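Sample log: Putative signal transducing protein.
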Amino acid sequence: MSGSNNYINFYSGTEIEVLRIKDLLEGEEIPSIIQNDFQSGNIGGFIGGTPSTIRLKVRESDVNKANTLLKNLG
């Protein structure tokens, strides 16, 4: 796997914020992954993370395009 296909942390926030940004990225064909340690911990029966620190990850090769979209959002 080349470095440009590695997923890296792009944004961290509440679940609502992350879902909104994920939807924006998908509209521009930028794949992303949500990492929700809080929800994962609840499912596993323990506390992991907090509800306000949901992470959105994008491929390294898409970071510049994703940053431009995020700047235009606000």
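Observation: The domain at 3-73 is CATH 3.30.70.1530 (Alpha-Beta Plaits).
Observation: The chain has a mean pLDDT of 84.
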